[in-house]
């Protein structure tokens, strides 16, 4: 049985990225008690400057955007716990979240845990510096405009690598697809598509990355490649473990399945942001958060919890 004498709240949000913070603001404004568990690992925090976020025509750093969103949620009474949720248990229609600091009992949980990008084989410090300078980029939808006409290397292979290279080809004629770990895994049709598009493709491995004053260079097999930006197209790891631990269904890609109101297949459990299948964009995450928070409020009201 869950011990209701522990810290008990109406709603728990796991993840302090755009989805989690937007949902938290809605929940606070619904006069619901809410806690956000945030370990500071949101991918948004690593964005040097996003220029496609509505309302910021001059762009905004990801960390600054998160700071504003966190401050906004706090204004409405949302509490923050800088702790990792290690386990999630569902009993008697409630959830218990075990964290590194304490246990939280809650009626509703929103998972906004996001995903991890798979990185190229390079030193972590060098990777982070290159990311901050825009020499490594992970989202061509977000910032393809910034590399218009520039030299671009896509690290990847197979269908995913080809699609990303073709997408970036619409921004620049100087695109090279490099396999991360050896010879390309491309069939005849894929090679023809790349050739027709004017995209060079080189076998790997991609190694020995060097950050230069105005470029980034690395070895592709025995060749040196020097470009303005590198886009890793190596896939990602979806952080859906907490959901699956309580029985939530996943898609074939590993994302949590949700309905039109961001409800998972487990009653009382919701999901929003990059942990859900769809376009990995801040604006999309915020929209999903609004849907999820409103559904949480309405479902609690139906259960007689949200009345004042």
From TrEMBL:
InterPro entries: FAD/NAD-bd_sf, FAD/NAD-binding_dom, Ferredoxin-NADP_redctase_2. Residues 10-289 form the FAD/NAD(P)-binding domain. It holds the Pfam family Pyr_redox_2. Keywords: Flavoprotein, Oxidoreductase. The keyword Transferase does not apply. One of its GO terms (molecular function) is oxidoreductase activity. This is Thioredoxin reductase. The lineage of its organism: Bacteria, Pseudomonadati, Pseudomonadota, Alphaproteobacteria, Hyphomicrobiales.
